[in-house]
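Data follows
____________
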Amino acid sequence: MALAQMGYTFLYFITEASFNHGMNPHVYITYRHIVAGFVMLPFAYFLERKIRPKLTIALFLEIFVLSLLGVGLTLNMYFASLRYTTPTFLASMVNTIASLTFVIAVVLRLEVVDIRHPRGMAKILGTLVSLAGVMVMTVYKGPVMRNLWHPLIHIQGNAVTHENWLKGSVLTVASCITWSIWYIMQALTLKRYPAQLSLTTWMNFVGAAQSAVFTVFIDHKQADWTIGFNIDFWSTIYGGVVISGLIIFIQLWCTKEKGPVFVTMFNPLSTILVAVLAYFVFGEKLYLGSIVGGLIVIVGLYLLLWGKEGDQEDVKPEEQSCLTCEEQKDSKIHILTKAGKEVKEEP
C-alpha cells in the first residue's frame, strides 16, 4: 500500500501537467481505463482461468455498479473539481475517505470495534486523529516555508482557473463519499468474485464505457479526443498501466487480505509525499499547516494500524480453534434412521 501511494503521488503531477497542456479530464479517464483494460486482460485470462467464477447477469450488474462508483462517478467528479479548486485541496480531502470508510464499515458490521479493548479504542482514536490532521491541512495554512533552492522541474502550461470554489468543494466531497462506498463494495464483491485480476479488467472496461458515454453527452468537440505523442499520451499510459491496472489490483488484493479500512488509511501518505515533492522538486509553496497536519495524520495512521493488527492476533488463538471444532463436526456425515440409529458414517 505504501508503494501504491507513491504511484498516486506521481499521478498528481503528471495529470496536472497534462491538464494544463489542454487534456480534457473526462477524455483522459476514458482513455486511461481502456489502456488499463487491455493491459490487464491477458493476465486475467490466463492466470485466473481455473479460479474465475461464472459471470451471471446479477454479478455483471454488481460489477457495473462497482465500476460506476469507482470510475464513472468518482473519477469524473474528482477531476472535474480540479477546474475549481487546487491539487493540494484535493489531496487533503481524499484523506477523509479513510474516516468515511471506517464509519460505513462499522455500520455494515464489516469492521469490529470493541471499545472495551485498548486496540478497539486505538481504531477510533486513530480515525479521529487522522481526520483532525486533515482538517489542519485544509483549514490552517500558517506561514509559508522559504524555498532553499530553485525548483528542479517546472510544470508549464496554461494556468488552471478556479471559477467556483464552492462548486469544486461539493464535487470533491461527493467524490469522496462515492469513493468510500466503492471501497466497501469491493470487499463485498470479492466474496462472490474472488478473481482480482479479472475484476480489475472488468471494472476498467465497464468504467471506460461509462465515462465515454458521459463525456460524449457533455463535450461534443472532436479535437478533445485527439492526443499527440506528448505529455497527454504519457499521462494516459502511466494512469492506465500503473494506476488503473497495477495499483487497483494491489488494492483489491489488500482489501481481500486486510479489509477496506486498512487500504484507505494509507491515503494520507500520498498527501505528505505530494507536499514534499511539490516543495523540494517543483518549487511550489509549502505552508506550516501542511507540515503540522501531516505529522498528526501519521500519528493517527499508526494508531489505527496498531488497532487493526490486534484483529489478526485475536483471530489466531480463539477463532482458529473454533474453526477447527467446526471442521471436525462437519468432517462426519451422519444419516439417522427414524429410530435414531446411526447407519452410515464417512470421514
About this structure: The beta strands are 144-145, 286-287, 333-336, 342-346. The two ends are 43 Å apart (CA to CA). Residues 157-161, 315-347 have pLDDT under 50 and may be disordered. The CA atoms of residues 8 and 270 lie 7 Å apart.
